Amino acid sequence: MSAGHGAALAPALLAAVLVPALLAAVLGGAAVAAVGSARRSGRARAAAGRVQAIAGGSRAGPARPALPAPPRWFCARVADADLPGDPARLWWALLAGAGTLPVGAFVAGGAGAAVLATVAVLAGPVVAAALLAGRADRRLDAALPERLETIARHLRAGAGLRQAIEGAADGSGPAALDLQRVAADVEHGRPLREALEDWARRRPRPGVRLAVTALLLGAATGGAQARAIDGVAATLRTRLAVGAEVQALATQARTSALVLVAAPVVFAVLAAVSDPRTASFLFATPLGLACLGAGALLDLAGGVWMARLCRLER
């Protein structure tokens, strides 16, 4: 075999070693996590199944196999982004994509496609998490004034504070779910004051603290509760309007950051398409693959840094 053939085969051999190793590492870690989670929760599920069978008798249907629980940090990110669906299904779908996409890209397009697919698998969830961070809090802030106005309307109609909270807890969304939890806590015997204070601890948002303060003040002193709650709702709407204006002014900075992140990728694609020698260097030599991977990681780091700089604190 000539030296030219050996140099041409080197990237393929390198990718053939690295891609299966990456796949084995991802799937191996997933398997270890699955076994550990299954061992921890196996006894609890079995005991729960026996209790359900005894309580329900013949009415109990066949148990559905539950996926092992994902890490807590992943569940927290899913809740923060307010994503629909089961976090366990999302976690295992990501692991499956991380294990199969680079291999499929290597089979279809060679070592360069495998490197790009690996970078996409690693960067995609990070970018999505950065873009969707705080979505649940933003939806809560947007829905809170309307929920408070609903509570005030129930109070004017003669309902008590507990009944007013239950009436405002209909529907979906973070604000409705939080009020439903408060109502459920009170229904199970917890004092209303403790349930509201626990809501403020779970959601350390300025709007929630202000709403809880108004509700607790009305519950403790009586008086014109509806007027005070309406005043809080009006204050929160004013804050939302100011925040929307600031958000619009920050759009230019975000657009500039997006252009800076996308420019190296677009330039690399255009250079590879217009010049075969550039494409051959980037995708067919170990040094080119190393430059491609390092550039993608640096671009990702710059994107995350600029996203943090452009993030508005609320």
In short:
By secondary structure, the protein is mainly α.
The low-confidence parts are 1-63
Number of helices: 13
Order of helices and strands: HHHHHHHHHHHHH
Largest sheet: none
The strand count comes to 0
Describe the structure.
This protein has helices at residues 3-56, 72-81, 87-109, 111-132, 135-156, 161-168, 174-187, 192-202, 206-221, 225-249, 251-274, 276-284, 286-310. The chain is mostly helical and 314 residues long. It has three domains: 10-52 and 71-80 and 89-133; 135-246; 250-314. The longest helix has 54 residues, at 3-56. The radius of gyration is 27 Å and the shape is elongated. The model is unreliable at 1-63 (pLDDT under 50).
List keywords for this structure.
single chain, 314 residues, mainly alpha, elongated
Describe the secondary structure blueprint for this structure.
Elements: H1 3-56, H2 72-81, H3 87-109, H4 111-132, H5 135-156, H6 161-168, H7 174-187, H8 192-202, H9 206-221, H10 225-249, H11 251-274, H12 276-284, H13 286-310
